[in-house]
From TrEMBL:
CDD domains registered for this protein in UniProt: ABC_MJ0796_LolCDE_FtsE
Keywords noted in UniProt: ATP-binding, Cell membrane, Hydrolase, Membrane, Nucleotide-binding, Translocase, Transport
Domain called ABC transporter: residue spans: 2-218
Enzyme superclass (EC): hydrolase
The protein's name: Fe(3+)-transporting ATPase
GO biological process, one term: protein localization to outer membrane
Tagged with keyword Amino-acid biosynthesis: no
Pfam families given in the database record: ABC_tran
EC number: 3.6.3.30
């Protein structure tokens, strides 16, 4: 599903990624762990086509990303990659259902179809009653589940999550982790999760250690 070959990335003199080779399979849930500053977010951003490597190639769902024009890349990203961040990043002036619909509307789906799909996802995530609530009327766990629904609205092949449970308490953390596995089983997404949470890392199909710009998947 994701193939990275010899990915290298520097910021000025700082060499952050020193030749990353990685293959992630369809429906796999992979965690990426490593010390702070080891390049986990940079690697996830590159996988998500939000940042470009200095060198190396990226293939997602059989499509070579290098060389795509910015507009093609933006369309591909919106369709095939869902993002979940540590802080939900919902737009405060919009309701839960409107936030979830946003990537579908950007992708050109009609408003009524986007709304139907968003309501299905809210139902699946146990949040149907919260559809018309704005983010400040939702609990932390609910906001993060709305962010998960937003990541899934276009039925992406891949979901990339950067410390998704980092701002949640223990119970919400465990519920969110369980949700990733349920979603993989029900919807078939591939998940890549950057996390400091050892409990979550232990649950995933595979843990990849990023140390000093290199992978070590022992
Ligand atoms: P991690 O997610 O493992 O904590 P990051 O990928 O966020 O690590 O960062 C790796 C290193 O690259 C850090 O030293 C960070 O300061 C640096 N870095 C990340 N993004 C940038 C940037 N846009 N410009 C300059 N330095 C950056």
């Amino acid at each position: 599903m994701i193939k990275l070959r010899d990915i290298q990335k520097s910021f000025g003199d700082l060499k952050v990624l020193k030749g990353i080779d990685l293959e992630i399979h369809e429906k796999e849930i992979v965690s990426i762990v490593g010390p702070s500053g080891s390049g986990k977010t940079t690697l996830l951003q590159i996988m998500g086509t939000l940042d470009k490597p200095d060198q190396g190639s990226i293939e997602i769902k059989g499509k070579k990303i290098d060389g795509l024009k910015d507009k093609e890349l933006a369309i591909f990203r919106n369709q095939e990659i869902g993002f979940i961040f540590q802080f939900h990043q919902l737009l405060p002036e919009f309701t839960a259902v409107e936030n979830i619909m946003m990537p579908a509307l950007i992708g050109g789906l009609s408003k009524s179809k986007a709304q139907d799909r968003a309501m299905e996802l809210l139902d699946l995530l146990g949040l149907k009653e919260r559809a018309e609530h704005k983010p400040n009327e939702l609990s932390g766990g609910e906001k993060q589940r709305v962010a998960v629904a937003r990541a899934l609205i276009n039925d992406p092949a891949v979901v990339l999550a950067d410390e998704p449970s980092g701002s949640l308490d223990t119970q919400n953390k465990e519920e969110l982790h369980q949700l990733f596995f349920d979603l993989r089983d029900q919807l078939g997404q591939t998940f890549v999760i950057v996390t400091h949470d050892e409990k979550l890392a232990q649950l995933t199909d595979r843990t990849i250690h990023l140390i000093d710009g290199q992978l070590n998947d022992k």
